[in-house]
Design goal:
The structure is a homodimer of 339-residue chains. The first copy, chain A, is built from six helices and 20 strands. With 339 residues, the first copy, chain A, is α+β, with helices and mostly antiparallel strands. Chain A has a five-stranded mixed β-barrel with strand order 9-10-12-20-18. A four-stranded antiparallel beta sheet of chain A has the order 17-16-14-19, with no helix packed on it. The relative contact order of chain A is 0.12. Chains A and B meet through strand 5, helix 1, helix 2 and strand 14 of A and strand 5, helix 1, helix 2 and strand 14 of B.
């Protein structure tokens, strides 16, 4: 046996269930231990109804975004009654160490799981989780939904998101899949920090990958219902679940729009301070409209600074409730996607 | 000069402004340096209009509760136009180290400022802030408003709160002052963790002390307007500010109620997991009604656990969006205050 520090390093990540079994199976994805932490058992659910799409649904990628784990638990409750074909695997908590700490990154190694893909079998605990997911789960699916939120200090309308994908055919398929969530926003998010994302690894293998996002502080019953409806709509569109897809009610409206945002649409703080939003997400703004005010806190004689809309646009996301450093994002604007 | 580690340990905390000056003064509360950190300058505003109440308004006691600093900045903008008498001192950020880290406690020494009063001149940085506030600012005021929120993982309606006070005369005065905020909830909060609170030190000196709370995740424009209206109402009631006090609109209503909550009204998690609220704050519940569900995350075959209302009561606060340990609070209920 190849051992190091008393741990068996030769064990490969694996599942305790056979995904080919018909019906419901529950067990664990086993992430082998390493020098920094012992073996992890990530609870997993699979419902195999034969022919049809192979879907993987994950939550708890970031530890302070808990809508995903809660919606995953709800799926596990109702899928057995409504799934008619295909196979759906649900893994509610990808990173239990981060969830237990209510921390975006894993406290033990400081790594962001969603920048650690495809992972390393001989790496730190976060890298080993990414490796287990990449090698054991990703090959089983042709469609992946990773259920995020936008983190506790951001407001963002419920959104199904993707990043630009080089392959135009996969890009079109992915946008259609995201739109099938029927959330208030479908978003194509172009940013420069995509290395190591779960999305990128899945898309490089030709899979349809949609990341659900939902910002706004505490997890309330209303938010959860919208999030859950979005996932149900997507499963209905895939033909795996019976039912009628419809837009969930958000701010007394039942509608959705497809937007894009680019790096230049990120509004940054001109100085350290506390950002006070002065508009709402989904507001349409003209160039020069007030988005918010940055209040430097070091001196009361320093004037507060207006943050203005750089172009006619739609307010996509607002930072709030946290101190920001100079040059840190305080808002994102967006515009209708042109294909 | 009495020096230690190159720092002048003999300097006492002091203000850079003379509070007896008429009109507006801005400067700093100087917190002397110590072994762990250098001198701090906490920006401060004073508006002296002669006879009348002496009020101290503070924010940023906890670093992840930023409504207080933002409302403080707004006060500084409009007080010069509406204050007619008395003296109002505003200190927007009591603990800049915690605010910059968006952390409840001070990262450097791990201390909760609101459990560190009256502080220590020769203590760690948090204790030195408490000492400076206790010795320099507290003696200048007969009324203190400390502007908190309930933290990022709790939902709580806007509330003006106090704790039970042994002196019945001061208790009655304090409840009347809290009710003058005209927030949706006036709360008498009985709990067992009051040692070292700013409240306790101020009340022991016979001062009226009200703590404003407002939970619910991100800081939005609507929340801030309610919070700001509450402080304005209180200053109008004290006779310092011109205007008409009125209940701010919260959930389409303009009303307030006075509640009390006791240690036995805290509902605790029976196991580690993620708490999903299944009711809303201010809901009236009967004994046995569902408050929320605790989802253990370690196994999918472990049933989720219902958290039920122990008595007929009003839902005061709901934890959400965070993992909780066993025996950690997930909700508070309350009932109308009987005097």
């Amino acid at each position: 046996m190849n051992t190091q520090n008393g741990l068996d390093m030769s064990r490969a990540p694996h599942l305790t269930i056979d995904l080919n079994t018909c019906g419901v199976s529950t067990g664990d994805l086993i992430v082998p231990g390493g020098r920094d932490y012992g073996e992890l058992s990530l609870p997993i659910f699979s419902l195999n109804k034969g022919e049809g799409h192979r879907v993987l649904i994950t939550g708890g990628n970031h530890g302070n975004e808990l809508e995903g784990p809660l919606v995953s638990r709800r799926l596990i409750e109702w899928l057995p009654e409504v799934q008619t074909c295909g196979r759906i695997i649900v893994l509610p908590v990808l990173n239990p160490l981060a969830v237990e700490a209510w921390s975006r990154n894993t406290p033990l190694d400081g790594l962001n799981l969603n920048r650690s893909f495809p992972g390393r079998a001989d790496g730190s605990v976060t890298q080993r989780i990414a490796d287990a997911v990449s090698r054991v789960l990703l090959p089983t699916a042709d469609v992946v939904f990773d259920l995020h939120s936008f983190g506790p200090t951001w407001e963002l309308p419920p959104a199904a998101t993707t990043h630009p994908i080089a392959d135009p055919h996969l890009m079109a398929k992915t946008v259609r899949m995201a739109e099938a969530f029927k959330l208030p926003v479908t978003l194509v998010w172009q940013h420069n920090d995509t290395a190591g994302m779960f999305d990128t690894v899945a898309q490089n293998q030709g899979k349809v990958f949609v990341c659900a996002e939902f910002g706004g502080g505490t997890v309330g019953a209303g938010n959860l219902a919208i999030y859950e409806a979005g996932v149900r709509n997507a499963l209905i569109a895939l033909g795996l679940v019976e039912g009628q897809a419809e837009y969930p009610t958000f701010r007394q409206q039942k509608s959705g729009q497809t937007l894009e945002t680019r790096p230049s649409d990120q509004l940054k703080s001109p100085a350290p301070g506390i950002f006070e939003p002065r508009c709402s997400v989904l507001d349409e703004v003209k160039q020069g409209d007030l988005i918010g005010i940055l209040h430097p806190m070091g001196s009361l004689s320093t004037d507060s600074l207006d943050i203005l809309a750089p172009t006619p646009s739609i307010v996509l996301a607002l930072a709030s409730g946290a101190h920001v450093n100079a040059n840190e994002a305080v808002a994102y604007v967006a515009r209708p996607l042109k294909i």
